[in-house]
Amino acid sequence: MAQGMTIIVADDHPLFRGAMRQALAAMPGAPDIVEAGDFGAVRVAAALHPDADLLMLDLTMPGVSGFSGLMVLRTEFPSLPILIVSAHDEPATITRAIDLGACGFLSKSAGIEDIRGAIDTVIAGNLYTPAGFRRGMSHEPDVADLIQRLNTLTPQQSRVLAMLAEGLLNKQIAYELGVSEATIKAHVSAILLKLNVDSRTQAVIQLGKVTAVAA
């Protein structure tokens, strides 16, 4: 690991963040650690550290539901590698995380050596998955098709869809994004077309099928 690296550790449990800090501190070229305890803090940390080398993201955090956080962050910070860290380590969950743009998946039950190996792998530009995992395990054809459709959205359309899911109106989204309401209406129309649905509500329901994490 090179000197001067910055890693954002996003988890709502202080004890887990502390354990991550301890594990990372012992690595060669100990990185700077930025902690975030909720999704709002994650976005702030990513914005304040645009050159961060890695984001370690828990799937279940206050302020966000399931994979929607990953989708939003991939849209807003496309150059930031994201390593999902979760206790939900079923093959279907790992597959979906990778399909939605994560650079790796680490189980919360992993030992220190696995944690360090995962970080080194992702920072080197490679994909990390738990031992024994094969891409495509527990593949869900309907969800896979929906993910492909979602991946055709532009970054701005992805932002608009995420805001629709938050229940925001067109004028509120326009204000947040600094564009006209007519522009937002055009984005919504494009989203409906790409997702092959007829309404905003259906678009949000489709998004929910992808972002939900199995209990």
Structure explained in plain terms:
This protein has 215 residues and is an alpha/beta fold. The protein has ten helices and five strands. The chain has helices at 14-25, 39-48, 68-76, 91-99, 112-123, 141-150, 155-165, 170-177, 181-195, 200-211, and strands at 6-10, 32-36, 54-58, 82-86, 104-107. Helix 6 (141-150) packs across helix 10 (200-211), helix 7 crosses helix 10 and helix 8 crosses helix 9. The longest helix is centred in the C-terminal third of the chain and has 15 residues, at 181-195. The two termini are 35 Å apart.
Order of helices and strands: EHEHEHEHEHHHHHH
**Main structural class:** alpha/beta
> Could you say which overall geometry the principal axes of the C-alpha atoms support?
globular
Q: If strands are numbered along the chain, what order do they take across the biggest sheet?
A: 2-1-3-4-5
Mean pLDDT: 87
Termini Cα gap: 35 Å
What is the β-strand count? 5
Helix share, percent: 40-55%
Classify the beta-strand content into a percent band.
Answer: 5-15%
Poorly predicted tracts of residues? none
Main sheet?
A: 5 strands, parallel
Tag the structure with descriptive keywords.
five-stranded parallel sheet, 215 residues, alpha/beta, 50% helix
